[in-house]
Amino acid sequence: MDVIFLGTGAGAPTRKRNVSSIAIRFDQSREVWLFDCGEGTQHQFQRASVSPAQVTCIFITHMHGDHLFGLPGFLSSRSLQGGSEKPLTIIGPEGIKSFVTLVLKQSQTNLSYPLYFEEITTDGQVLDLPTARVECAALVHPIKSFGYALHLPDKPGRFMVEKAVAERIPFGPLFGTLKQGEEIELSDGRRFSGKDFIEPPVQGKKIVILGDTSACPAAVELSRDADLLIHEATFAPEAAKLAAISGHSTNIDAAITAKTANVRSLVLTHISARYDDNKASAMLAEAKEIFAQTMMAFDFYQMTV
Questions:
Q1: For residue range 104-155, what is the model confidence (pLDDT) as tens digits?
Q2: Between 71-80 and 96-106, two packed helices, what is the crossing angle to 10 degrees?
Q3: Architecture of domain 2-155+201-304
Q4: Is the Cα dihedral 132, 24, 135, 91 positive or negative?
Q5: For a tag site, which of 125, 218, 235, 237 has the least CB within 10 Å?
Q6: Distance from C-alpha of 53 to C-alpha of 49, rounded to nearest angstrom
Q7: Global pTM?
Q8: Domain spans of the chain?
Q9: What is the set of active-site residues?
């Protein structure tokens, strides 16, 4: 899957960082899930290698403006661009449905596609979606804020061609039968089970995207053993008191969470507008001292997981 950072700033946009939005594009289906939709997200799509028509689900972490003020505009533009009649589901905290429906009603905006809502009502709620299982956890912030853990399905184990060749099994339809895990019988009377020629399944990836949060046990538990953790790093260490008061994290908080949760890699995002490129680089270096596999996101940064 591809992870595309459309907005990596906190609070208000700057010339280099728009406010929060992350797109995840799945390999098989090519569908896109969008996490948060800050103001101007529809403009970011025009500069990114992803189309609004591909978006099937939008996850909102919490109801602060820098995470959802771009939602009405995005929904409207997706309708106007044509070729986008696919249903779209918005998932988020209680209140997201009333927010969206009120704006659409008052602006007399008619969408060309069905719009559905799934409101998160309980901590630990699990959504079993066709593309991935999504686990939700309440974080620590002045308003209800959630983290989302995506558990992708396991991939089938590799078919051991070399073992089949060693057993002198003819190439062709018999290989296909074995790949399905079924039994075959050769002309010489030998019988084989496909299960003996397939390696164990490959565990599906786990991706965690946190909403705004102070350092908390829930963030660690949700992130446990994740392949990728995307964590806000609004403030540098010297602003640790401000971070705690405002319900945010520092770069150090994020690195400690990643290390404690035993994740494979960490990406810092949601950087305060007070920090220029030099300070952001310093924040990255500080975090890497604690957790080496740390990266700093910037707008349009794209990575494959």
A1: 999 999 999 999 999 998 888 888 988 999 999 999 999 999 999 999 999 8
A2: 60
A3: 4-Layer Sandwich (3.60)
A4: negative
A5: 237
A6: 12
A7: 0.90
A8: 2-155+201-304, 161-197
A9: 66
